[in-house]
Amino acid sequence: MTFATIVYIPALEGYWAQSLEVLRLFLASLGRTVHEPYEILVLDNGSCPEVREFLVERHAAGTLDQLFLTQRNFGKVGGWNLLFSVAQGEMVAYSDSDVLFISGWLERSKAVLDAFPEAAMVTAQPIPGDLSLHCTATLEGAEADPATECEEGDDLIPPHYVESQRLGLGESPQRFGARLERRREVRLRRGEVEAYVSASHFQFLGRRDVLASLLPLPSRNPLGNAGILDDRLDAAGYWRLSTVDYLVHHMGNRLPDIARELPWLKGGDEVGSFDVGRHSQQTYISGLRQRLAESPRFRRWLKAVHRKSYELLYPD
């Protein structure tokens, strides 16, 4: 299996202040929730020197199998064109580099792909919203298939999952509510496996041959056009599904407050058999120490404090 991600952290201040710690937590949660051999491909889309140095160190240590460094931002779609073309595994798991993985995400995603071979994209998080977007082939195929049970409603996804998604996106109730104005949900069932119609390109599991068959994807600008993958999958007749359980969490640009954002998890902060809250604190402190140690202003201030302390303790 191949795991692929794209990193873009242009600075470690302001909006991006905690982004390196988020990246560390992303990799840690991935490593602790995947229990089979996999290769990991990373494309750095022109991040700042500190992030590139961190990735180069991880690659040298063998944590990353392939690392691609670019001087400019090729965007998500441009990154997909590269990563999906060089992936070696029959299955490709893509994720943005600000996702927290919860135990069972890969196993449940594979179960959906096995039960629904029509699917080309499975996201390990239920996605509430408007199913008129990129889901025509999925809805038409499921409704026409006698082997697939369909249940429809506008509130099938548990409300605590919906709230966790809102918190992970960092959106206000008003703005997030606008996303749900045309909310419609369809839950599918084959045998013992259930899935929701809809998926998201922030994280998904798919088949390499299907993804490669869509390349090259047109990449107009770094920040837009990611929906082209959804469009092409739908136009080709492939299904887009999600697991019924909430098994990945979007962190964004800050370390997550697990007790608040994922309070329904067993143990409150157990993700991938390790304490995310403690790890978040440790990675943040580690990153802060590194930034302080590398700051000329901080070193000058510390030297002045030491000099003043010495003068107070040992006056002439």
* CATH architecture assignment name: Alpha-Beta Complex
How many DSSP-defined strands? 14
- Uncertain residue ranges: 272-277, 279-284
Q: What would you report as the Rg, rounded to the nearest angstrom?
A: 22 Å
Structural class by SSE content: alpha/beta
* CATH class descriptor name: Alpha Beta
Domain unit count: 1
Query: Total number of helical segments?
Result: 12
Share of residues in strands: 15-25%
Instruction: Note the main sheet.
Output: 5 strands, mixed
Question: Strand sequence of the main sheet, in spatial order?
Answer: 3-2-1-4-10
User: What is the helix content?
Assistant: 40-55%
CATH topology: Spore Coat Polysaccharide Biosynthesis Protein SpsA, Chain A
Can you characterise this structure?
The structure is a single chain. With 316 residues, the chain is of the alpha/beta class. It has a single domain, classed as Spore Coat Polysaccharide Biosynthesis Protein SpsA, Chain A (Alpha-Beta Complex). The protein has 12 helices and 14 strands. It has helices at 19-33, 49-60, 75-86, 105-115, 136-144, 159-169, 173-179, 208-213, 227-235, 258-261, 276-293, 296-313, and strands at residues 2-7, 39-44, 66-69, 91-96, 99-101, 119-123, 149-153, 185-190, 193-197, 203-207, 239-242, 248-250, 270-271, 274-275. The strands form 4 sheets. A 5-stranded mixed sheet has the order 3-2-1-4-10, sandwiched between helices. Helix 1 (19-33) crosses helix 11. The chain is globular and about 95 Å long. The model is unreliable at 272-277 and 279-284 (pLDDT under 50).
